[in-house]
TrEMBL record:
Origin species: Bombyx mandarina (Wild silk moth)
Superkingdom classification of source: Eukaryota
Membrane topology: Multi-pass membrane protein
Gene Ontology cellular component terms for the protein in this record: membrane
Subcellular location: Membrane
Name of protein: Transmembrane protein 104 homolog
Length: 504
């Protein structure tokens, strides 16, 4: 048998893997756990307290389920993309083999009989076309399965979400630094209106003294001046930096939960969250969507996993554990503190405590967003810059464009809008409400649903009904897709009405 035909058989029998280390499914789930449980969780206690503990619990569990449902859609679409790429590669090899064949038609027919034909009808069979071995990012899926209009909408939604991410990161860092530098005030003051006019230091009587808003803006500009230049380069997060920030994140979350439990046991519940308060639902929705966001990064974490059988079941276990963790963080915070900051770490602003250890812990928690978000900001900014270039330029001939356009214009367009937005809008809850409720809903709900529906239709037309995708979502009935779309549109409408009512 000619060598090319052995290559075709190997193409179907052997996984197409990315270069780099592979890891077990449990390690992969830990990575997904760490990806989901990020700084978004710091906004949950305040949103939880405003919407009421019962309504928040029901909403958080339901939104966790919706996030898991759409994660299975991303996995199914990734398997479909692998199948399409394998099919195209197979057809390319076949065409080359037919052009070079020296044998008669009968021999060629026998050789093709050893292959899995794309168009299989009748009894459903497991297919080697469908796999998760080759990493296919959301943008590549959009290019495969969306029309030109769909691709445009995808990139616009992704860019808006990433802009929102950068704005939230910038505001969170600047506000954390401000609260550490300035004198302590009660959280109901910092969460309400008028805090920006307060003097940074209560002891001063100088009318020209720095206000809290001045310090916030200086912190913001300093942060962007330090981290912004990285967007001009292709800086990638290192493995050791990931380990360091991951360890700091878990240390911070463990300390916050432990201290809240200690406060509850020592002085009782000072917080009195209501049972139901629908007025807090939009903020809670934005915080939950933001806190369960992982869909844009799932392909890169799933493809290196060895032995992907039972991936859906293991992923559901991950979501259960994350939901329990979020409920523990939100419940302890909502009942331990009478007033909660939009950013939970600000409830641990250093006080005049004489205990050095507690002071160190308070400073660590207060500056926690600064440590973690400073490492994430350049990566998110570079991702946004690359997507803006993909949207506006022909990436196939990127080097042909003017160096000013490539090296200066797009980095500036990436960094400047979030800085201007957070310079004049310091309210993190508003930023999260908008980013999570609009762009977040698009990334987490609408895009995976439209992708999976289009991918199913595309693969059936290409491979036939009998070729089975073993990574098919358990929510494969069309009614589930309709339900997700209706839910997304309903939430967007409700959030929009709430925002307009607040302005009126």
């Amino acid at each position: 048998m000619p060598r090319r035909f052995w290559g075709v058989k190997r193409l179907l029998k052997m996984p197409i893997t990315e270069t780099g280390d592979q890891y077990s499914i449990w390690v992969g789930l830990i990575y997904i756990f760490n990806l989901i449980v990020g700084t978004g969780a710091l906004t949950l206690p305040a949103a939880f307290s405003r919407a009421g503990w019962a309504l928040s619990t029901i909403s958080l569990v339901f939104l966790a389920f919706m996030s898991f449902l759409n994660a299975t859609y991303v996995i199914e679409t990734m398997a479909c993309a692998n199948a399409v790429l394998k099919w195209k590669k197979l057809q390319s090899i076949k065409r080359e083999s037919i052009q070079d064949r020296d044998t008669d038609e009968e021999t060629t027919s026998q050789q093709y009989g050893d292959l899995e034909e794309p168009l299989v009808c009748g009894t459903s069979i497991p297919s080697r076309y469908y796999s998760l071995d080759q990493r296919v990012e959301l943008g590549e899926m959009a290019n495969l399965f969306f029309s030109k209009t769909g691709r445009l909408m995808f990139y616009c939604t992704l860019c808006v979400y990433l802009y929102g991410d950068l704005s939230i990161y910038s505001a969170a860092v600047a506000k954390s630094v401000m609260d550490v530098v300035c004198s302590t005030v009660s959280s109901n003051v910092t969460n309400g209106r008028g805090w920006e006019s307060l003097p940074c230091f209560n002891a001063t009587d100088d009318p020209m003294a720095y206000t809290r808003l001045d310090v916030y803006r200086v912190s913001l500009l300093t942060f962007v001046a330090v981290m912004g230049p990285f967007v001009f380069f292709n800086v990638q997060k290192t493995k050791y930096l990931q380990l360091l920030t991951s360890g700091m994140r878990w240390l911070a979350f463990t300390i916050m939960i432990s201290m809240a439990i200690h406060l509850l046991t020592s002085r009782g519940a000072e917080g009195r969250p209501p049972t139901f308060d629908v007025t807090g639902m939009p903020t809670l929705f934005g915080a939950c969507v933001y806190s369960f966001m992982c869909h844009h990064s799932l392909p890169g974490l799933i493809s290196p996993i060895r032995g992907k059988n039972g991936l859906g079941l293991h992923l559901s276990l991950d979501y259960v554990l994350i939901s329990v963790f979020y409920l523990l963080l939100a419940f302890t915070g909502a009942f331990a503190f009478a007033e909660l900051n939009d950013l939970y770490t600000l409830n641990f602003v250093p006080s005049d405590n004489e205990n050095i250890f507690l002071k160190i812990v308070d400073y660590f928690l207060s500056l926690f967003p600064v440590f973690t978000l400073s490492t994430s900001f350049p990566i998110i900014a570079i991702t946004l810059k690359n997507n803006l270039q993909s949207l506006c330029l022909d990436t196939g001939r990127i080097e042909s464009y003017n160096v000013v356009v490539r090296k200066i214009l797009f980095p500036v367009v990436t960094v400047v809008p979030p800085v201007l937005l957070t310079y004049y809008l310091e309210d993190i809850s508003v930023l999260i409400e908008f980013t999570g409720s609009y762009a977040g809903a698009g990334i987490q709900y609408l895009i995976p649903t439209f992708l999976v529906v289009s991918a199913r239709r595309h693969c059936v037309a290409l491979l036939g009904l009998g070729v089975v995708n073993k990574y098919k979502s358990p929510f494969s009935h069309a009614a589930w897709a309709v339900f997700v779309l209706l839910w997304s549109y309903m939430c967007i409408i409700l959030v929009s009405v709430h925002i307009f009512e607040k302005k009126s």
